[in-house]
Amino acid sequence: MKNKSTYNWKNNLLGTKSTLYYKDTIIGNLESNNWNLDARVAIHSDQYHFKNKGIFNPYTEIRNQKDELIGDIEYNTWTNKATISLIDRKYIWCAKNMWMTAWQIEDENGQIVEIRPSTLTNGGEIESLENSELLLSVSLYLQKRLAAIFYLAVLIPIFLMLLH
Question: Which among 33, 34, 93, 158 would be 20 to 30 A from 59, CA to CA?
Answer without folding.
Answer: 158
